[in-house]
Amino acid sequence: MIEIWLNPACSKCRTAQSELDAAGVDYTVRRYLDEPPTVAELEDVLGRLGLEPWDIARTADARKLGVTLPTKDAGERGAWLALMAAHPKLIQRPILTASDGTTVVGRDPASLAQVIAAD
């Protein structure tokens, strides 16, 4: 089963959900703005993505939220994670995780196909 972190107001999220429906795969929805991920959950997702927090940050939304982002270095990693957990709008979307652990930021057809195939 695939888990998808989404914001229903996001067109990329709606597209990803439509692709999952079209593929006929089972999935669960997590509205991550209503149920923000914890720092531990973000760590887990980033580990599976092979990315750093700043790689999945929505910097334009930081400006809209009036949030100052830390510098992009390992010493600030904890600050990034705490900020993203406190302000989930900063997290890129949608994030999909297949039952085998394959995780993608599903903003393009190739990423969506990868997670669907892994499930």
Quick recap:
The protein is of the alpha+beta class. Helices cover 43% and strands 13% of the residues.
- Please state roughly what percent of the residues sit in beta strands, choosing from under 5%, 5-15%, 15-25%, 25-35%, 35-45% or over 45%: 5-15%
Strand order of the largest sheet: 2-1-3-4
Q: How many individual β-strands?
A: 4
Instruction: Write the CATH fold name.
Output: Glutaredoxin
Query: Could you give me the name of the CATH homologous superfamily?
Result: Glutaredoxin
What's the Cα radius of gyration?
Answer: 14 Å
GO molecular function, one term: arsenate reductase (glutaredoxin) activity
Protein name: Arsenate reductase
InterPro entries: Arsenate_reductase-like, Thioredoxin-like_sf
EC number: 1.20.4.1
Structural write-up:
The chain is of the alpha+beta class. It has one domain: 3-Layer(aba) Sandwich (Glutaredoxin). 43% of the residues lie in helices and 13% in strands. The protein has 5 helices and 4 strands; from the N terminus they run E-H-E-H-H-H-E-E-H. It has helices at residues 11-23, 39-49, 59-65, 77-86, 109-118; strands spanning 2-6, 27-31, 95-97, 103-105. It has a 4-stranded mixed β-sheet with strand order 2-1-3-4, with helices on both faces. The longest helix is centred in the first third of the chain and has 13 residues, at 11-23. The chain is globular, with a radius of gyration of 14 Å.
